[in-house]
């Protein structure tokens, strides 16, 4: 009985460590890819794209009641506060639009630094996840180099025979041991599934934009009546990503315009800060049925970063965070940079959403600290992070070569000026693997490379170690353990208020400990 009392008490104390329980995020359905639409057009008068009913966001013009949110703003702050409401198509067509043309999307260094801080992950992969990603990327990198390399490679890539033979032996050993992926528990026996698996060569991503006006019934975003801006953004997105085999398809009519509360202290949406309670609340209301494979883009009038005196153009949640952040998963943008032929910031942030890091690692002040950490990909993609050069066009790469930098994930002033040179094959590989692993999910028959000689214990982190993809290009068998170390050594930010609003932390563990204590005590009776 004494043991029972101790265990029950421990469970009670642990349970008091949290006042809320995390909500479970629905997993992405393993359905076949949607038909490819290279450059979808979004218009108020066009018929909506056919989407399954469960995917269609709330489109009613009546007030939308607030669903329970992890934000502290779960109820109106005063009797004068109204709820958010969707602007009807009629109001969009007849309403006043802003007449100020936004300036070109050319971020300053300060804006880049705020973006870097906003996108810093709060945690790294766990060792098992890191190993799985390293194995997948090694296999898919060889596949893409041989079948569909990205147009942005500095020079044609080739896998030397020595590395090809190594990977072929691993593939044979894996097939003999396990066979293709069964879509449920992992690889299955050859007798059940057949000999060859299907490589993922194309990804189609449903996308929906949410705009919120600066105040109730105020001017809509510039050129909102015909959504010309949005049509341009969609066309540009597909122009950039289609050569990689990544396609964006408008969900429903493609956008929703919202009015903020009519009155009260939350009625002024002229300016917002990252992860403000009211922002999180709006995101949660506008995305009540989150899907990890769907991209939601929220657009606000003005956005401030960690430094409230500095502007933040946009930020995204990384692919690996998808199931943890729930309804706020997606990209958040300042509307002023979404104008013209296309937003370089939006392209950049979607790269983060698909799993990419900055190719320079982080911005530093000293050469002694430079080139210590990249994005874990090829050395030809590893750029300098020196504050004095990171926001310039011509840069000296970490391998000593000078070039004009066009990479979309860089802070170069030249990014976007040569569209086809913006992504490389190693980046394409990372986007495909991380989207499929963390967002879409592999299905039966998909190729899911694994190392049949995998170790259970990762080696000590080696920050400046070559990547597994670099091993392959250099004719070596990929060092999976070293790649795991690179993943585990990626920098992280201290847990922020994002952790509170998205279910991070030890809430589920606490609840589990309390329940386990009761179960164990009962078994001992």
UniProtKB/TrEMBL annotation:
<dbReference type="InterPro" id="IPR008754">
    <property type="entry name" value="Peptidase_M43"/>
</dbReference>
<keyword id="KW-1015">Disulfide bond</keyword>
<keyword id="KW-0812">Transmembrane</keyword>
<dbReference type="GO" id="GO:0008237">
    <property type="term" value="F:metallopeptidase activity"/>
</dbReference>
<keyword id="KW-0862">Zinc</keyword>
<keyword id="KW-0472">Membrane</keyword>
<dbReference type="Pfam" id="PF05572">
    <property type="entry name" value="Peptidase_M43"/>
</dbReference>
<protein>
    <recommendedName>
        <fullName>Peptidase M43 pregnancy-associated plasma-A domain-containing protein</fullName>
    </recommendedName>
</protein>
<feature type="compositionally biased region" description="Polar residues">
    <location>
        <begin position="17"/>
        <end position="30"/>
    </location>
</feature>
<feature type="region of interest" description="Disordered">
    <location>
        <begin position="17"/>
        <end position="109"/>
    </location>
</feature>
<keyword id="KW-0378">Hydrolase</keyword>
<keyword id="KW-0479">Metal-binding</keyword>
<keyword id="KW-0732">Signal</keyword>
<feature type="domain" description="Peptidase M43 pregnancy-associated plasma-A">
    <location>
        <begin position="297"/>
        <end position="431"/>
    </location>
</feature>
<keyword id="KW-0482">Metalloprotease</keyword>
<feature type="signal peptide">
    <location>
        <begin position="1"/>
        <end position="15"/>
    </location>
</feature>
<dbReference type="GO" id="GO:0006508">
    <property type="term" value="P:proteolysis"/>
</dbReference>
<comment type="function">
    <text>Secreted metalloproteinase that allows assimilation of proteinaceous substrates.</text>
</comment>
<feature type="compositionally biased region" description="Low complexity">
    <location>
        <begin position="31"/>
        <end position="48"/>
    </location>
</feature>
<feature type="compositionally biased region" description="Low complexity">
    <location>
        <begin position="56"/>
        <end position="77"/>
    </location>
</feature>
<dbReference type="GO" id="GO:0046872">
    <property type="term" value="F:metal ion binding"/>
</dbReference>
<keyword id="KW-1133">Transmembrane helix</keyword>
<keyword id="KW-0645">Protease</keyword>
<dbReference type="InterPro" id="IPR024079">
    <property type="entry name" value="MetalloPept_cat_dom_sf"/>
</dbReference>
<comment type="similarity">
    <text>Belongs to the peptidase M43B family.</text>
</comment>
<feature type="transmembrane region" description="Helical">
    <location>
        <begin position="504"/>
        <end position="524"/>
    </location>
</feature>
